[in-house]
Prior knowledge:
alpha/beta; Aspartate Aminotransferase, domain 1; Aspartate Aminotransferase, domain 2; 2 domains; seven-stranded mixed beta sheet; three-stranded antiparallel beta sheet; 14 helices; 14% strand
Amino acid sequence: MNPLLSKLQPYPFERLKKLFAGVTPNPALRPISLGIGEPKHATPALVIEALHASALAQPSGLAGYPATAGEPSLRQACADWAQRRYGLDLNPATQVLPVNGSREALFAFAQTVIDPTRPGVQGQPGPVVVCPNPFYQIYEGAALLAGATPHFAPSDPARNFAVDWDTVPDSVWANTQLLFVCSPGNPTGAVMPLDEWRKLFELSDRHGFIIASDECYSEIYFRDEAPLGGLEAAAQLGRSDFKNLVMFTSLSKRSNVPGMRSGFVAGDAALIKAFLLYRTYHGSAMSPVVQAASAAAWNDEAHVVDNRTQYRTKFAQVTPVLASVLDVRLPDAGFYLWAAVPDRWTTPSLSADEHFAQALLAQYNVTVLPGSYLAREAQGLNPGAGRIRMALVADTDECLEAAHRLVAFVNGQPR
Length: 415
C-alpha cells in the first residue's frame, strides 16, 4: 500500500458519524440536516432536457471513448461563460479544460504540479502546499498524497476568517510549490479583494509557486457586486498570461447538478497542457451526454439568477433568527453560515462545537457540522473550534424550521 495513505485524516463526515454513534435523535421531530453542502434546489429543466436529447440523438456516442480534453463545443461554452462573467478572453483550446467536478480536479492538479523530489531550503523538509485554515479537506489530502507538507495559514476572525497571508513565514513561502485559495471561502464565505490577490501574485513571482483558485461558490452571493475571481484579478493587474494561476469552477452549486460531476479549469496554458497530459493517463474524460448538458448549463444564466435569488431570500429570513442566539452573520457568498456557539457546551471530552452538535441532534433532530472538523490546529489554535457550519441547502421552510429549533435549543427549551 502507498505509505502516504496513512497520513490522511478522517473526512469530516466520518468524524461526525463517530460523534453521533450511540445518539438517539428525538423521534418526535422529523430529521433536518444542515450538515452536508449538497445543493437541494431543483435541477434546471434545460439541463435535464439536454441530457435526454443528447442520449436519444447520439446513442452511438456512448459506444466510443470521449476525448479527455472534452468537445470543442463544451470548451467554447466554458470560455464564453468566463467572458460574460469575468470579461476574460480565454483560448478554449489551450486555456480551458473540462473536469469531472472541482473536487476531483483539485486533487489531481496537486499530483500534476508537485515535485516531491525537490529538496527543502531554509530548514524546511521539502515541498510545501499552503492552505487556508479552516479549509476544504481535499487540499490537505492532495498535498499529502503528492508527497508535500501542508502548511495551514491562519485566519482572522475579525475579518470574517479571511486568511492572514502575512503570518506565513518566508521559509515556508520559499518551499511552497502550490497554494490553494478558496474564494468565496468554505466554510466562512469570505471573498478575497484585489489587494489580497496582488499580494499573492507578488509572492508567487518571488518564490515560483502555483496558485490553485477554488471558486465553486462564486455564483451564490449576497452583495450587489459578484465576487472577484482569480483570473479576473490577474487580468485587472495586467497579468493576462495568467502565469502560475489556474481557477477551478463547477456546475454543482451554480446549477444544482452535483450528481453530474461537471466543471472546468482555466488559466495558464502551460499548466493546462501538463494537467491534460496527467488526466489522459488518469482516465478523467467526461461522458458525451454530460458534456452536452454541461454546455447547456454554462450557456444559460437565467436559472443561475433564479437560484441566487432563492438563496438570498432564504438567508434573509434564516440569518436574523439564528443571530438572536448565536454569533453569526450573513456571509459574503456561498451557502453556509459559520456560527460561534456559547462556551457552556464545552466538556472534558468534547469541544463546545462537538457537544453542541451532539446535543442538538439528540434533542431537536437537527444536524450541523462541528467547525473544528473543518480546520487543523496550527500555531496552537484550531480556528474552527467553538463554531459550527450550517449548510442552508434545503428549501426555506425547512431551514427556518431548523433555525427555530436551534433557537429553542440554545435557550434551553426541552423537547
